Amino acid sequence: MTIYICIEAVLLVLLFKKKPHHIGYSLISIGLLLISAFRAESVGTDVVNYIIEYNLHGIETWKESFTNSEYTFAIYCKFLNVLGLKERGFLIATAILFALLLMIALHVNHCDKILTFSLFYFAGLYLQSFCIMRQSLAIVTALISYSSLEKNYSIQMPYNKGRFQRFPIGFVIGMIIAIGFHPTAIVLFALPVMMLFYGQKRCRKPSVFLRDGILCMSAALIILPVLYPFILQHSKEKYQVLYGGSYVTGPFGNWKSGILLVTLYLIFYIAYYNNWKKLTEKENIIVGSVIMLAFACSSLSIINSTLGRTNLFFEGLMVLMLGKLLSHRYARIKSINFYVILVFAAFFILYLMRDSIVVVPYKIWQ
């Protein structure tokens, strides 16, 4: 746990240091890459299962890889096997791939790199890559594809309506790749729908997005406990086991983690409410749409821990949005933005103490 806290401390120093910190950002990125690449197999709950999956993909034919439901990951594993990489080579290659994709995501979205990278780390999303590798790769791939969505969205004057001036082909291609890593990435197709929906609305105040998100969350909490078992009964056995296991604890068996997630989203909303007037109308619609979807999907986390992992995609988007929101005076002690960052830093400590993905204690591969 000490190594993770030390990295957090260094990031906080870099965040509130007023001088440029390009070298610090690079060193931290390389350090985390090495920590991920050379961790022991016990660091991360699912590492052993991924190694087994890697070997299984290695003996598949190329045709089987392309027709696999997780086709991107299957092709990736098959390719590494053809190169002759063993289990440790797979973990090192995946650590490098994740770090590169994250770096690209921050670049193409024009982020304040140290701020956004720090929030990504504080939210636990970097450490998630030590465990849920497929979904972590899907998240950073989706964040790259998001840049196309934002680029092609515009506000039409004089009616002040939001629309896509061109079809976001880059977003669609990126999402196809992301879905191939983890099928749950499909939930992000709801974002352009919401952007079009709110683009037609006259009132786009923060309270509107929060209200709609809470209403959708409440509706899901009422409907899903009844509908979810029926959906499971008519799903493939694989998904019944994967997404139905923790449901036996009751319709709200994961409520503690779900409430913690809702609290995190409330902090996100506070940052939005405090800064929304500094945003362009386009930015306001996008951030508000993410807020609405984040609250709506938090219901899934309350109901079922595995199903709730869909929230990780919205957490990734939340980090990108916070990078835009908090860039205004976040280093000033009297600013609310300053304390929002400290709350995320405190959340990271709670995240480590909970250790739901078993990354504590950290051990080096031997």
Automatic annotation (TrEMBL):
Give the highest taxon in the source lineage.
Bacteria
Give the residue spans that cross the bilayer. 23-40, 89-108, 120-149, 169-197, 209-232, 252-273, 285-304, 336-353
Q: Does the keyword Transmembrane helix apply?
A: yes
Q: Which InterPro entries match?
A: EpsG-like
Q: Which UniProt keywords apply?
A: Membrane, Transmembrane, Transmembrane helix
Q: Does the keyword Membrane apply?
A: yes
- This chain's protein is named EpsG family protein
Q: Which organism is it from?
A: Faecalibacterium hominis (ex Afrizal et al. 2022)
